[in-house]
Amino acid sequence: FNSLNHDMTLTEFKFIWYMEYSHRMWGRVVGLAYILPAAYFWHRGWLSRPLKGCVLALCGLVCFQGLLGWYMVKSGLEEKPDSYDIPRVSQYRLAAHLGSALVLYSASLWTGLSLLLPRHKLPETHQLLRLRQCAHGTTALIFLTALSGAFVAGLDAGLVYNSFPKMGERWIPDDLLAFSPVLRNIFENPTTVQFDHRILGIASVTAVTALYLFSRKIPLPRRTRMAVTSLLAVACVQ
Known about the structure:
Helix content is about 70%, strand content about 0%. By secondary structure, the protein is an all-alpha fold. The chain has two domains: about 1-115; about 120-235, no CATH class. α3 (about 90-115) runs antiparallel to α4. The two termini are about 35 Å apart.
């Protein structure tokens, strides 16, 4: 209110406050949804030794995610003397919070599916190994694209250019490397951050499409083929 939104009403503040409060409460419910059943299953002796390690890792990651969320929000509340920047959380901490959430979600899904679905035993052919490598590479690229989106959000970089495929009137904007040193542009220059996110997004869609086309040449189980097709469909929607 003092730094930016001088005309904010109490009702508008309450809307923001309840959004934040609901997010925190939901995060705590998620934590309890992990920890309480885990403690019960552990006590009943229903967890194998490898699964106990997974459960401990997931519960630890849930707690770390909550701590990281607090650390992120704290950066937006710190006083910055002699600064006229718009009050916002650190884009680095925002990316870390999102990244840990994606890791937690992926690990939870992987663990759950490993328990629910029997593993297919396929011959380790050259094509299958290449498909697996491509899938891992595509996963890493999608993860990197999502993290770059956190930097876009943290810097309000989406407001800089709103035309596509060009940025304004140019393919490569003039202020792409305006900051010094050059490496700083990747994380702190809104133009560069938006440019990188666009390139990574296009690269992700291309990689998913290539993975799908490559998978069509290999005899795969129905479940695997359905997963690859679903990945392409979700990538197009995204």
